[in-house]
Structures are given as C-alpha cells and as structure tokens.
Amino acid sequence: MEGIGGFKVYKGLQRPLVFKNLKGKFIGWGAAALITSFLLCVLVGNLVGVLFGMVTLIVSFVLSMSFILYKQSQGLHSRDSGAGYYIVRRIVRGKLDL
Q1: Has residue 60 been placed in a domain?
Q2: What tens digit of pLDDT does each residue of 68-81 get?
Q3: Which label site among 31, 37, 54, 81 has the fewest CB atoms less than 10 Å from its CB?
Q4: Domain count, the chain
Q5: Is 98 part of a structural domain of the chain?
C-alpha cells in the first residue's frame, strides 16, 4: 500500500513473529536464557574452573531451552486445565439465585 506521496505505509506484521522456532514472547525468554546461561558460566568458570563453567553453560542452556519449548507447545497464554463441574451462582438484585 502506498500513502500520500507514493511512500509505502507500514501496516504491522502480516505474519506472526518467529525466530529460530521460537514464537512471540518466547523469543525474549530464549534471549534471557542465553544471557543467564552465559553469566552463570562465567561465574562458575571463575569460582571452580573453566571446564565446569563450560559444562554449566551447556547444561543450563539445554535445560532452559527445553523448558521454553515445552511451555511454547502448551500455547501462548497460560490456561487452567481444571477438570470437573463448576457451579456458577448468579446474583440478581442482591439475592443469590441457585
């Protein structure tokens, strides 16, 4: 689409935002997992040793990414999966209707 003067007008994303199999808010979660794993690697590497730091980096990143992919497979929004019957009472003019 073109606006006034022949310039293209940005109308927003036409497709959902996807980066390396991560969608929407999970892209930020993945970036946070990468940064946190790296900082944990640096901390453990300085305190214990470089080898343990590298192992910590790999293990923490794999575990956090598997958690993120699991949460992504459940959907974008958190839902309750309550099983059973729910009785909803209506209040009409200050009285309970059962």
Answers
A1: yes
A2: 999 888 877 776 66
A3: 81
A4: 1
A5: no
- Print burial letters for 47-67: b (CB count within 10 Å at least 16), e (below 16): eeeeeebeebbeebbeebbee
The token duo for 19 is 């980066």
Query: Has residue 52 been placed in a domain?
Result: yes
Q: Is the pTM of this model over 0.85?
A: no
Q: Which of 90, 88, 40 is nearest to 60 (CA)?
A: 40
pLDDT of residue 21: 80
Per the rule left: phi > 0, alpha: psi between -120 and 50, beta: everything else, 83 is: beta
Contact 30, 22 (CB under 8 A): yes
Q: Which residue has the tokens 């497979």?
A: 73
Domain that holds residue 37: 22-77
How would DSSP label each residue in 12-47? --SS--EETTEETHHHHHHHHHHHHHHHHHHHHHHH
Q: What amino acid is encoded at 68 in this protein?
A: I
Which amino acid would we find at residue 82?
A: G
